[in-house]
Q: What sequence folds into this?
């Protein structure tokens, strides 16, 4: 177990080192003078020189890279010489140090520099913004898990049914829809078009109801729920087809038929705003909690993992239900509910755990456009604003934090594997 953890930690450290190196190289090659961004275009040459020295911009790229790694390391090596770039400034770095001659070994939190625009510590900016993104990501993955597992299980237990085929269509649409596109659509539909009320035509629902009544009142034939749902869906689509045909005939010939079938009924709207954060500010009462603002971005961010979870749950459960131990459990007289929930379902969770862990970390990174479109105050919105303003310390610090979360989640999931499935054994 110990050697396994050491290997995983070494792997995580290697990934983080690669991310830091790649990000440093990208922004090191970016044209522009950070000193001018900090001081403004009217800065004096002396002030620019002082800021460049503080940021290490007067050093070559290799030395700047070593300085940045030293700042990020929890255990860093410094000097007690004040004129050196590696001088240990306790006010800037914090933590504690062990001095040996002219060398100081510092034990501190990673130093992420200061924002070019606000002059604030990047650590403080991320600390204030990341709870909003965490809440959004947790709500999205919970929504995807609950709905996805239920739909996936029903699809597997009713294989090749209308529900199963419909869930596959939903999964394909969800996987092929980018988050930024769906954010615009859902914001427009839920926060503008259907904000006050929803107007729906009578005809499709009337025909669907007639189809259901025909099945239920018929003395012969199948009256199962699958046939009732299938008939209602066919009637619903036929109603829309008839309504479309009447629209075309009335537009072409002016027959007046549209007035006979164009009755509508009103449903309550969503009442949700197009944009908003978890906390809103009232000019009189001050900040207040607005959890309803979480609904639209949660659905938007959860669509893609929902589609993946539906597919994974369906396929994994179907595979488990075909195993020999399931046939043995049925032969022993166990109820179908016990077979599915106590045996097949638990073993089908393995691929789901991996998907959820990866998607949760991806949601933290993928929330940038969703938070921007919905105005959700989180780390994604801060990253977007920093990219627009070329505030690179905020971008680099955010990337490092998200990468660290991703690595930690992967390590925890590998350990959790052995808890969920006894067949999985962690090497020692």
A:
């Amino acid at each position: 177990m110990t050697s396994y953890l050491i290997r995983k930690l070494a792997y995580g450290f290697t990934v983080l080192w690669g991310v830091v190196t790649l990000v440093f190289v990208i922004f090191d090659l970016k044209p522009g003078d950070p000193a001018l961004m900090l001081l403004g275009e009217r800065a004096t040459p002396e002030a620019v020189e002082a800021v460049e020295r503080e940021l290490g911009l007067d050093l070559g790229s290799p030395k700047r890279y070593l300085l940045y790694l030293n700042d990020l390391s929890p255990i860093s090596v410094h000097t007690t010489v004040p004129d050196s770039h590696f001088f240990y400034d306790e006010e800037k770095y914090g933590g504690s140090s062990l001095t040996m001659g002219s060398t100081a070994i510092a034990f501190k939190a990673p130093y992420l520099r200061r924002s070019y625009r606000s002059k604030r510590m990047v650590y403080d900016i991320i600390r204030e913004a990341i709870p909003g993104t965490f809440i959004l990501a947790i709500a999205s993955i919970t929504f995807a898990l609950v709905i996805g597992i239920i739909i996936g299980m029903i699809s597997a237990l009713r294989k090749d049914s209308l529900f199963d085929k419909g869930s596959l269509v939903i999964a394909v649409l969800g996987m092929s829809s980018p988050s930024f596109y769906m954010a615009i659509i859902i914001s427009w539909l839920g926060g503008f078009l259907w904000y006050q009320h929803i107007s729906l035509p009578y005809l499709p629902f009337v025909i669907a109801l007639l189809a259901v009544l025909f099945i239920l009142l018929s003395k012969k034939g199948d009256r199962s729920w699958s046939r009732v749902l299938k008939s209602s869906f066919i009637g619903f689509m036929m109603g829309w087809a008839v309504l479309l045909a009447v629209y075309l005939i009335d537009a072409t010939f002016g027959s007046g038929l549209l007035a006979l079938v164009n009755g509508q009924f009103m449903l309550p709207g969503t009442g949700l705003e197009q944009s908003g954060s978890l906390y809103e500010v009232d000019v009189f009462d001050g900040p207040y909690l607005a959890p309803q603002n979480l609904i639209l971005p949660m659905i938007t961010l959860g669509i893609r993992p929902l589609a993946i979870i539906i597919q994974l749950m369906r396929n994994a459960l179907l595979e488990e239900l075909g195993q020999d131990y399931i046939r043995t459990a049925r032969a022993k007289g166990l109820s179908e509910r016990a077979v599915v929930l106590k045996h097949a379902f638990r073993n089908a969770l393995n691929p789901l755990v991996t998907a959820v862990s990866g998607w949760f970390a991806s949601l933290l990174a993928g929330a940038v456009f969703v938070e921007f479109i919905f105005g959700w105050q989180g780390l994604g919105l801060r990253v977007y604003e920093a990219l627009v303003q070329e505030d690179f310390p905020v971008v680099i610090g955010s990337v490092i934090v998200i990468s660290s979360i991703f690595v930690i989640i992967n390590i925890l999931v590998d350990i959790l594997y052995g808890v969920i499935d006894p067949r999985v054994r962690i090497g020692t």
